[in-house]
């Protein structure tokens, strides 16, 4: 199954294996698009004259026990053809609610027509279904707010940052308030001062938009997919409150310890390192870590602590004389140490 999301728009695709024996198949989990959960399924339907059809069902917020919500959405449901121009598509605009929470099409395409290899829908017994959803409005829940910064706004934006050839319109004061990098760029004695357009090198457009959505008011959340690139940009542009938000997320997420240890040393996140090391509480857990494909990426400072931790497990009696040494893994400090680059500022 493939899910691609961008704010209030989303694209869902999943393959139906062994299509010829299809009874009913649905997605294994329900992605969120436009602050609503969606479920896509396919089934076989027999008419009174024994004609067999492929049926498709799209549900909004299945199992959501409330009568206070509604969702206006444009939906495009497609039976994918190996020749894109022959893809079978239907477009529907509907208000979903607890009363009308689904689109159910019992006769989407005749079964034998889908199965016929010459028609291009079925390949190696597999058939692909797609649904493209654009949520226009919500009632009873908030819309996902994700600014694109693609257009200037009067009295709000006063400079365009060029990222991968695209203009990103921002306000100097807003960025300078949260980022020493941009404060220096906009207001110090650099050649960029006073320019209406400033190019940023080495930055990906979509990743930079994510960072801006955390600086400006929006509903963007930090997750496993975006935390690393947001952290990289927040560190580069010295947006320390976003670094702190990334750190809090990393401490709470179920990301593998090896990934946390790599990120912690790369960005000097002491509490993330502490938590990850504390979770490696047995020799077996460290042995599993040692054979992980990313083990060699762990930084030298963390490797030192791992070595001492292994030694303690094997020769604990050698360390009892100095239980309060700096490398102990007892209670965490009240607050993480301030990164060196922040102290210098």
Q: N- to C-terminal separation?
A: 47 Å
Order of helices and strands: EEEEEEEEEHEEEHHEHHHHHHHH
Number of domains: 3
Extract low-pLDDT stretches. 317-331
Beta strand count = 13
Q: What's the CATH topology name of the largest domain? A: Apoptosis, Tumor Necrosis Factor Receptor Associated Protein 2, Chain A
Q: Going by CATH, what is the homologous superfamily of the largest domain?
A: Apoptosis, Tumor Necrosis Factor Receptor Associated Protein 2, Chain A
| Biggest sheet architecture | 5 strands, antiparallel
Gross CATH architecture of the largest domain = Sandwich
- Using only CA atoms, what is the Rg? 27 Å
Protein name: BTB domain-containing protein
InterPro entries: BTB/POZ_dom, MATH/TRAF_dom, SKP1/BTB/POZ_sf, TRAF-like
Pfam family, one: BTB
Task: Describe the 3D structure.
The protein is an alpha+beta fold and 345 residues long. The chain has three domains: 2-139, Apoptosis, Tumor Necrosis Factor Receptor Associated Protein 2, Chain A (Sandwich), CATH 2.60.210.10; 145-241, Potassium Channel Kv1.1, Chain A (2-Layer Sandwich), CATH 3.30.710.10; 254-345, no CATH class. It is built from eleven helices and 13 strands. It has a five-stranded antiparallel beta sheet with strand order 1-2-10-7-8, with no helix packed on it. β11 (159-163) and β12 form a beta hairpin. The longest helix has 15 residues, at 300-314. The protein is globular. Residues 317-331 have low confidence and may be disordered.
């Amino acid at each position: 199954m493939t899910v691609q999301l961008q704010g209030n728009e989303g694209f869902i695709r999943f393959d139906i294996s062994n299509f010829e024996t299809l009874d009913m198949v649905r997605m294994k989990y329900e992605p969120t698009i436009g602050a609503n959960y969606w479920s896509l399924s396919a089934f076989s339907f027999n008419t009174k004259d024994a004609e067999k059809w492929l049926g498709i069902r799209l549900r909004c917020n299945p199992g959501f026990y409330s009568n206070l919500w509604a969702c206006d959405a444009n939906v495009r449901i497609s039976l994918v053809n190996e020749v894109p121009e022959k893809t079978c598509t239907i477009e529907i605009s509907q208000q979903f609610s607890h009363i009308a929470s689904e689109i159910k099409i019992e006769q989407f395409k005749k079964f034998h027509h889908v199965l016929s290899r010459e028609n291009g829908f079925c390949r190696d017994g597999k058939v692909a279904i797609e649904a493209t959803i654009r949520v226009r409005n919500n009632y009873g829940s908030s819309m996902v707010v994700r600014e694109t910064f693609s257009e200037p706004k009067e009295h709000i934006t006063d400079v365009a940052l060029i990222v991968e050839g695209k203009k990103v319109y921002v306000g100097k004061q807003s960025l300078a308030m949260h980022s020493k990098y941009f404060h220096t760029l906009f207001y110090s004695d650099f050649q960029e001062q006073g320019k209406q357009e400033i190019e940023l090198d080495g930055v990906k457009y979509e990743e930079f938009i994510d960072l801006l959505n955390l600086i400006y008011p929006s509903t963007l959340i930090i997750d496993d997919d975006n935390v690393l690139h947001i952290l990289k940009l927040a560190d580069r542009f010295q947006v320390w409150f976003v670094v702190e938000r990334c750190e809090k997320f990393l401490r709470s997420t179920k990301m593998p310890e090896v990934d946390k240890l790599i990120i912690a040393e790369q960005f000097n996140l002491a509490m993330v390192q502490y938590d990850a090391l504390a979770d490696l509480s047995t020799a077996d857990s460290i042995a599993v870590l040692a054979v992980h494909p990313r083990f060699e990426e762990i930084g030298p400072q963390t490797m030192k602590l791992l070595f001492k931790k292994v030694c303690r497990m094997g020769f604990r009696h050698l360390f009892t004389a100095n239980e309060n040494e700096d490398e102990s893994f007892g209670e965490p400090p009240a607050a993480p140490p301030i990164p060196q680059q922040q102290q210098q500022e």
